[in-house]
Design brief:
Elements (H helix, E strand, L loop, with lengths): L10 E3 L12 E4 L6 E5 L5 E6 L2 E5 L7 H9 L6 E5 L5 H4 L10 E5 L11 E3 L2 E4 L6 E4 L11 E4 L4 E3 L20 H14 L5 E3 L16 E3 L6 E2 H23 L4 H6 L15 H12 L2
Parallel strand pairs: 2-14, 5-6, 6-7, 7-8, 12-13
Antiparallel strand pairs: 1-14, 2-3, 3-4, 4-5, 9-10, 10-11, 11-12, 13-15
Helix pairs in contact: 3-4, 4-6
């Protein structure tokens, strides 16, 4: 692969056209000398595996950000994007798909087709791509954020990306209109945490733990390793969603409104640092699911 990154420098700031500066992303390696990168900004996190026979992109951010993704990739390799994997169909993770031209294969769960995503190849339960150090395993464990959420695992790199099944340590976020379920999410995350083995690092669906404090006005390749989260954080998040649902059920049984329940949820102290700004929306979704 023809990598144009200057490996002895901490950061390489790239000259880009003025019109492109409106939308830029941060391109960061996930390990010294690795070919797997995270692209931060413009919606959900994007991953790019830059092989010498083409680039595999995982999630493409909001509409209008595909060009910024391509420019960031082109700053590090001469190889074209050949494959896009979408963890689900929401526009903050798949909106940039249309900005990739040429013979690009789009892979997603079969249920995303009903959501309007244009897919070349679908996954039902599991699909393995590539081999060796670049192997990618795609898993579907059930309903959660939507009814078509893929878990992306790089087994040889001991790393996983869960999209919005694990967006950050925060109140669960689901889209009932797309088949999402907070109640089902608790079971789905438990399956993820127990059935996937060997993974030690996790990239969250959004930017927690990956934020870059440097000037965002230009695209950069950062050779330092971004802080990923631990697999134990996924197990803890599975516990959190289970306990969140149980607390909401208890509040509903006590006759509380959704607003009262979200303001007074009895959760263990271990979740004290979680962002609960989206709690009301999650409680309302659970109330709608469990009924009177």
């Amino acid at each position: 692969m023809m990598m144009r990154t200057v490996w002895f420098a901490a950061v390489l700031t790239l000259a880009i056209p003025a019109h492109a500066q409106e939308k830029t992303v941060r391109l960061r390696t996930l390990g010294p000398g690795d070919i797997l990168y995270v692209l931060i900004g413009g919606g959900g996190n994007t991953l790019a595996l830059m092989r010498d026979d083409g680039v595999v992109v995982i999630d493409t951010k909001l509409p209008g950000w595909g060009t910024a993704i391509r420019q960031a990739i082109e700053s590090a390799t001469d190889q074209p994007v050949t494959t896009i994997i979408n963890t689900h169909a929401h526009p903050d993770h798949a909106g940039g798909n249309a900005e990739f031209s040429g013979n690009v294969e789009v892979i997603a769960h079969a249920n995303t087709v009903a959501a309007g995503l244009r897919v070349s190849r679908t996954v039902t339960d599991k699909l393995t791509l590539l081999s060796g150090s670049d192997e990618i395993d795609l898993f579907y464990f059930g309903r959660g954020h939507t009814n078509g959420d893929l878990v992306v695992v790089f087994p040889q790199k001991r790393l996983a990306y869960l999209g919005d099944l694990f967006p950050a340590k925060s109140a669960p976020l689901v889209d009932p209109a797309a088949g999402g379920s907070v109640v089902a999410l608790a079971d789905t995350l438990r399956r993820v945490a127990t059935e996937i083995t060997g993974v030690t690092r996790v990239v969250t669906g959004h930017a927690e733990g990956l934020a870059d404090s440097r000037d965002p006005s230009s695209t950069s390749v950062d050779i330092s390793t971004p802080r990923t989260m631990r697999w134990s954080d996924v197990a803890e998040y599975a516990d959190f969603v289970r306990d969140f649902v149980a607390a909401v059920r208890q509040a509903r049984a006590a006759g509380k409104t959704a607003a009262d329940a979200s303001a007074t949820l009895a959760l263990p102290d271990r979740y004290r640092g979680y962002d609960m700004s989206g709690a009301l929306r999650a409680v309302e979704a659970i109330y709608a699911e469990i009924g009177p």
